[in-house]
Design goal:
heterodimer; A: alpha/beta; Rossmann fold; GMP Synthetase, Chain A, domain 3; five-stranded parallel sheet; B: 83 residues; mainly alpha; Non-ribosomal Peptide Synthetase Peptidyl Carrier Protein, Chain A; globular
């Protein structure tokens, strides 16, 4: 059934950067090929295409319009992957959120992204559909115990993909509203937004990143060209689908006629088992995952992972020692990439270059221009240190309804990464640190302001500052320095329970430093770098 | 209270991840990645807060802290001995 397949995404779509038509063209040419596997469930191209068509038609019939924003709180699943294609067909915009966010953080994110409809599981919807009650206290010293937020402004479709729940429509019932023979709506344009990625969960100032259909398509295309991906590849996604990396890893195979292998949760053992059983050939993994996997490879294992032809390390940089270890342990093509949510891949270091440029993050990816600018916003010379800026076809579509922030993030056509670096005489980029106040833990961005806002709510806290703390397994974890209002009576356990109630999994501070005061300059401005230096060296807590 | 331990633990796990089809009370939820290094802190705090117990580093390293069955036994024991 399978025909000769084009090598690049560009060829599959006759140059048009449209996601749904490209997927449907593969489905019509090779209906019986396996399109996706997720934890034992599987779908052929024909089965997936039928689900997508029926779902987008049913959504449209239920009032979901082109341009509408759909909040998505789903675990990795075939349904989540299908929903990306539904949105691409319908011209709707997905707002995927971390499944561990608290209801109030979900509420803020929905408000910031102007969400009209919600797709989730019955279990997760249950916590959102609790009716708001009057304010109460939990006796823990919190100034305000969180009251269930009012989601009545999210007035469109509430959809449960698995079980029936009061207040939501069951996906199986929704699909009954459309013919099993539904055709694609093909209602989207290349410049339509497809995904709004949240950059901040619970503060008053989230900055949703717009990723258009064209951006998503170009990002998949760049990966295809950079890593020689073909229709024969079985591409593994082992990070959550609310994260743009996993979205790309699912779209790459579905846009190239390959097979998507989707893990619903990660552990090093489960990853090895999955690669072995599903004969995975390609993946981009978060560097902290690769470190854990490399640890498993130490003691000998029963898994045959020789199907792997290419692995890419992403999200946080590898230190040279770990890089050397991984190159030795993975007997396949190995790349390390550097990038950011707003630009995807900026640079690539391959196995050959790693031999002589181990400490670099590689050269600019195809189609990408990298420059270094100094404090006066002018380009600096070769070898000089400055801010890394990138011009790329993978550029985001701006921050949603924040043209001021979008403009501030640009240097002409170049995106300002906020990262410090230098370029050597051969054009290799060296990453030298971040200037943005952000913690990257297991590939997930954590915003210190989100944590500080919650900790500062507690009656026993005068002020606090969250910062990145080095971690063997996750690269970095969140640490926080706390100035108590009354140190002798301060109860850390109560503060931790307070954080547990109000922050998501990934935002929980792992290290607490109880201090008399925070380091500030003569103007009273917090000197976070000094805090980091002091406490990451003296790591007792 | 004791009868409520298992449903509470099960719900916490279900909130973290869709459970595999063959998952039962003896399945290893750490090995399966249901409670991963990212989610373990909140998982522990939720158990400590709900059952008024203290979970130590040694508890986390123990074989009990890997399955629903083991956790129910551990929590029951801690509640009986006052934490």
């Amino acid at each position: 059934m399978e025909t000769v397949l084009p090598k690049t995404v560009a060829e599959t779509a006759s140059g048009a950067a449209k996601i749904a038509p490209t997927f449907f063209s593969h489905a019509s040419r090779m209906p019986d090929k396996q399109a996706i596997w997720c934890e034992g469930a599987t779908a052929t191209y024909q089965e997936l295409a039928k689900l997508v068509c029926r779902w987008s038609n049913a959504m449209s019939a239920s009032g979901v319009k082109h341009g509408d924003h759909i909040g998505v709180i789903l675990p990795n699943s075939i349904e989540f992957s299908a929903l990306m294609l539904v949105a691409a067909d319908l011209g709707a915009v997905l707002v995927p959120l971390n499944t561990s966010l608290t209801p109030s953080a979900v509420h803020k994110a929905f408000a910031a992204a102007e969400v009209k409809h919600v797709v989730s599981t019955a279990m997760l919807l249950k916590s959102l559909l609790v009716k708001p009650a009057t304010s109460r206290t939990d006796g823990s010293g919190a100034k305000n115990f969180p009251t269930p937020p009012d989601f009545s402004t999210v007035s469109g479709l509430w959809l449960s993909v698995d079980e029936a729940i009061e207040g939501a429509t069951l996906l199986a019932d929704l699909l009954e509203n459309a013919s099993p023979h539904s055709q694609p709506l093909n209602a989207a344009l290349e410049e339509d937004a497809l995904i709004l990625t949240m950059t901040s969960g619970s503060t008053g100032d989230p900055k949703p990143i717009i990723l258009t259909q064209r951006t998503k398509f170009n990002r998949a295309r760049a990966a295809v060209e950079l890593y020689d991906i073909t229709a024969q590849d079985r591409t593994l996604a082992a990070t959550p689908l609310y994260h743009s990396l996993a979205e790309r890893l699912v779209l790459i195979p579905l846009l190239t006629g390959g097979t998507s292998i989707l893990m619903s949760r990660f552990s090093a053992t489960a990853w090895l088992e999955c690669v072995h059983e599903q004969a995975v050939t390609f993946t981009i993994a978060v560097s902290s995952q690769l470190k854990q996997i490399a640890g498993q490879l130490d003691g000998g294992h029963a898994y045959d992972i020789t199907s792997l032809r290419c692995i890419v390390s992403s999200s946080a940089l590898l230190d040279p020692q770990v890089k050397t270890e991984l190159l030795a342990k993975f007997d396949c093509d190995f790349h390390e990439c550097y990038g950011a949510s707003e630009i995807a891949i900026a640079s690539n270091l391959d196995r050959v270059s790693a031999k002589t440029k181990l400490r670099s993050v590689g050269i600019a990816a195809p189609g990408v221009n990298i420059k270094i600018i100094g404090k006066n916003n002018e380009m600096v010379g070769t070898g000089e240190i400055g801010e890394i800026v990138c011009k790329t076809p993978m550029l985001f579509g701006g921050y949603f309804k924040r043209p001021d922030l979008t403009q501030a993030a640009m240097w002409g056509e170049y995106f300002r990464t906020g990262d410090m670096g230098r370029l050597d005489e051969d054009g290799f980029l060296y990453f030298l640190g971040r200037t943005k106040d952000i913690i990257i833990s297991g590939g997930i961005n954590i915003y210190p302001a989100d944590i500080e806002a919650v900790v500062n709510q507690h009656a026993s806290v005068a002020e606090s500052a969250a910062f990145a703390f080095p971690d063997e397994q996750l690269g970095e974890v969140a640490a926080i320095a706390v100035v108590p209002t009354n140190k002798p009576e301060f109860d850390l356990k109560q503060l931790r329970f307070h954080c547990c109630e109000r922050l998501a999994d990934f935002q929980q501070p792992r290290k607490f430093f109880i201090v008399n005061e925070l380091p500030k300059n003569s103007m009273g401005k917090l000197m976070k770098q000094q805090l980091v230096k002091t406490y990451t060296i003296n790591s007792k807590c | 209270m004791q009868d409520s331990i298992r449903p509470f633990v099960l719900e916490l796990l279900e909130k973290k991840s869709r459970l595999p089809k063959n998952f039962d009370d003896t399945s290893d939820f750490i090995k399966a990645g249901i409670v991963d290094s990212m989610g373990i802190i909140k998982f522990i705090l939720e158990l400590e807060s709900r059952f008024k117990i203290e979970i130590t580093e040694a508890d986390i390293e123990s074989g009990e802290f890997r399955s629903i069955q083991g956790l129910v036994t551990m929590i029951n024991r801690k509640m009986a001995t006052g934490g």
